[in-house]
Write a structure and sequence with these properties.
Radius of gyration of chain B: 19 Å
Shape of chain B: globular
Number of helices of chain B: 11
Number of helices of chain A: 14
CATH class of chain A: Mainly Alpha
Largest sheet of chain A: 2 strands, antiparallel
Radius of gyration of chain A: 19 Å
Structural class of chain B: mainly alpha
Largest interface: A-B, 37 and 39 residues
Strand order of the largest sheet of chain B: 1-2
Strand content of chain A: under 5%
Helix content of chain A: over 70%
Order of helices and strands of chain A: HHHHHHHEEHHHHHHH
Strand content of chain B: under 5%
Number of strands of chain A: 2
Order of helices and strands of chain B: EEHHHHEEHHHHHHH
Oligomer: heterodimer
Chain lengths: 323, 296
């Protein structure tokens, strides 16, 4: 047991290195590369969602909107505008998602609690139907298609992303950079303010913090990460299905975050991994894998409110006396 | 005589269909509002109870060949399910506070949808309008679908019964008081535990009833609750969360708006109700008839 404890302690201090090492070899332990890539993109999506939910305490039911905006932004750049570089396309996706998050965040932030959540849901559904009906540009019900082969052009040379494995490593680099950025943000004073707002928003206000604008900024950060994930996912699937924007996608990311644990940094990533791994595993065995997933979710809400990683970290990480 | 190139008779007919649709929304919104008002839980599983009502009605009709029997029994059976779910799963979570009860209902909705797929399959279930209620009725200069008129009438009766129960019975008194000030009610010695289960079950009965009534009008399939739950949220928010008269007014309003928009501007039909919801939430978050200060 001490080996496990030592490992857990090392991981607690070097989370991102550990993550990188693990995911560098990940594709070789997974049955197929597409699953590994999907785990990375949805993991990033969930991490972005958790910035808002676990750290700031704001439950958004419409996060599919930013995932979708990033996907459509990247997709439109690649498929319709003919921009060759995947990085530029991702950038466009991020900008689209950030803009959407800024507008929707500003409008929703005027309300609290469940009203905030329902307002985010309303805007996300609104976006879904708008995109659905703009078939000429977005492909409507059929989704956005027409993605070209991707080549990353760097000063040294170009890297084709044709094979699933090379695409996986491209995604890994992007996601790793995004997570490093996220960790820096969360460890910064800004991150502390977010958590303070979660604990007691009114007190924060009394202490003089500009709570409303901090929340909007957090919303935008969260949207940026979700949008990046959406863009990567779009490039991975080579299509943007319109259901990306439907509220069930928001539900999925919420499920992933809760199963993994919203109170830890990596919880959502673990949740996404568990969800997708189970999905691909169970789908081989039964058509009703979603029933089991729903059951697991219900079980987590009832028995493991801190999620899998939260429960694990409670058990494994040594606590100093008086903590 | 036409309005925007649409004959007046068609408009009237569509308006009546809008009222029928609105009444379905009213049933759903009443259930949601009751549960939110007393339990403080946004019941994400509400749409799946609606779906289960419709599917159960399909099964009962197949067995008994009587629409009337399944209209009576399908909602009651689903109510029992709701009662059990509240008792065993939801109740322990109230003490935790926060979002856990709502998240549980969300998880339940996933489980119910998949269970429904297992039991009734993936394809849409055929549900015919009962022969007594099919066809149309001549009203003035236009023909109106008989079944829609029936839906309007029976929902009005049910809402009336609900109103009598809430205003005239002890149970109703406790529910109204509990919605207003649960702590005080408990301090006065009333055991709210059972009341919660009954109210949750009533919400499920209303949802299932809406499902049975909607079955001949819409397709019956496992995911039919997914869109209706969002539309129900819109109605409850517009009417005012926790307000029953708000649910009534907003249900009819949203039903009418959706129906008429489908006639005049079909592409806007899906979008318009969300615009209404967003506008209401931003300008008057308490809703049309809600209590001020509730989570503002």
């Amino acid at each position: 047991m001490t080996v496990v404890r030592a490992l857990a302690a090392w991981l607690e201090h070097h989370p991102l290195t550990g993550l990188l090492v693990f995911f560098a070899v990940f594709p070789f332990i997974m049955p197929y590369h597409a699953l590994s890539t999907q785990i990375l993109t949805y993991g990033l999506f969930a991490m972005g969602f958790n910035l808002l939910y676990g750290y700031t305490g704001l439950l958004s039911f419409g996060h599919a909107a930013y995932f979708g905006l990033g996907a459509y932004g990247t997709g439109l750049a690649l498929a319709r505008l003919g921009l060759g570089s995947p990085l530029v396309a991702l950038g466009l996706g991020i900008v689209t998602a950030a803009a959407g998050a800024a507008i929707i965040g500003f409008l929703c932030m005027r309300r609290r609690g469940v009203y905030f959540g329902l307002l985010t849901l309303a805007f996300a559904q609104l976006l879904y139907f708008i995109v659905y009906h703009m078939g000429d540009i977005t492909g409507g019900e059929d989704g956005l298609r027409g993605f070209p082969s991707l080549v990353v052009r760097l000063p040294g040379g170009s890297i084709p992303l044709d094979s699933p494995l090379s695409f996986y490593y491209f995604v890994l680099v992007v996601v790793a950079l995004a997570l490093i950025g996220l960790k820096r943000v969360l460890d910064s004073p800004f991150g502390s303010v977010l958590q303070a707002i979660r604990e007691n928003g009114d007190r924060c206000l009394a202490c003089g913090y500009d709570v409303k604008n901090v929340k909007i900024l957090a919303f935008v950060f969260s949207g940026v990460l979700a949008g990046l994930a959406g863009g990567l996912n779009a490039m991975h699937l080579r299509i943007v299905p319109v259901d990306t924007l439907y509220w069930t996608t928001s539900g999925t990311v919420l499920l992933m975050t809760l199963v993994g644990g919203g109170s830890t940094f990596f919880g959502p990533f673990v949740g996404a991994s568990v969800y997708l791994a189970l999905e691909s595993l169970l789908a081989l065995v039964t058509e009703s894998w979603q029933l089991i997933m729903g059951g697991i979710f219900v079980g987590c809400v009832v028995f493991l409110p801190r999620g899998i990683l939260g429960w694990l970290s409670d058990r494994l990480v040594a606590r100093s006396p008086g903590a | 005589m036409t309005l925007f190139d649409v004959p007046l008779m068609v408009i009237v007919s569509q308006a009546v269909i809008g009222i029928a649709l609105g009444m379905i929304y009213v049933l759903l919104a009443l259930g949601l509002s009751l549960v939110f008002g007393l339990l403080g839980v946004v019941n994400f599983a509400h749409g799946s109870f609606y779906m289960l009502g419709a599917c159960m009605a399909f099964s009962l009709v197949t067995v008994t060949n009587s629409f009337w029997l399944c209209l009576l029994f399908a909602p009651l059976l689903i109510g029992v399910l709701g009662f059990g779910a509240e008792r065993t799963l939801l109740r322990p979570l109230y003490a935790r506070g926060g979002d856990d009860p709502m998240l549980l209902t969300f998880g339940l909705s996933l489980v119910f949808i998949e269970a429904a797929r297992l039991i009734w399959g993936n394809a849409a279930l055929p549900f015919e309008t009962p022969t007594l209620l099919s066809g149309s009725v001549k009203m003035g200069m236009t023909y109106l679908p008989t079944y829609r008129i029936f839906v309007i009438v029976i929902t009005a009766v049910i809402v009336g019964v609900l109103w009598v129960v809430l205003r005239g019975t002890n149970f109703g008194l406790i529910v109204r008081a509990g919605t207003n000030d649960p702590l005080m009610v408990r301090a006065l010695g009333v055991d709210l535990g059972n009341v919660w289960s009954w109210v949750f079950a009533s919400g499920c009965v209303l949802a299932a009833l809406a499902g049975v009534l909607a079955a001949p009008m819409r397709r019956v399939f496992a995911e039919m609750g997914l869109t209706i739950i969002i539309e129900s949220f819109v109605v409850v928010v517009v009417g005012g969360m926790g307000s029953l008269s708000g649910a009534l007014v907003a249900g009819l309003l949203i039903g009418e708006v959706a129906s008429l928009t489908a006639l005049f501007a079909p592409k806007m039909a899906d979008i318009v109700i969300f615009i209404v919801m967003a506008v209401v939430l931003m300008l008057r978050p308490r809703g049309l008839l809600g209590e001020p200060g509730l989570m503002e």
